[in-house]
Design brief:
mainly beta, 114 residues, 11 strands
Length: 114
């Protein structure tokens, strides 16, 4: 059974940085892509960034230039480095892994304060 476990969320001031991690119970290369999504209070879940099996990265316009997705193949872990955080980045961040199905982690809360 595929399990994804996020960590690294917390409270940070606007302009600060956080790094999220997502550990996968299996090989990253079993999946076509892995990514990060977020859901702010009262809003729908939205895509943030992903990284393909081949290593190509993609970002939502709202985070481009501020967030960086990366992976450590040996640790079967992906990361989301978040810099220049804004109040509107406050959300629960979810890790996802795509094969024929999409698998989700349980999320980690990021709160950006003024």
């Amino acid at each position: 059974q595929v399990q994804l476990v996020e960590s690294g969320g917390g409270l940070v001031q606007a302009g600060g940085s956080l790094r999220l991690s997502c550990g996968l119970s299996g090989s990253i290369f079993s999946f076509n892509a892995m990514g990060w999504y977020r859901q702010a209070p009262g809003k729908q879940r939205e895509w943030v960034a992903d990284i393909t099996k081949g290593g190509r990265t993609n970002y939502a316009d709202s985070v481009k230039g501020r967030f960086t997705i990366s992976r450590d193949n040996a640790k079967n872990t992906i990361y989301l480095q978040m810099n220049s955080l804004k109040l509107e980045d406050t959300a629960v961040y979810y890790c996802a892994a795509d094969s024929r199905l999409r698998y989700w982690g349980k999320g980690t809360l990021v709160t950006v304060s003024s």
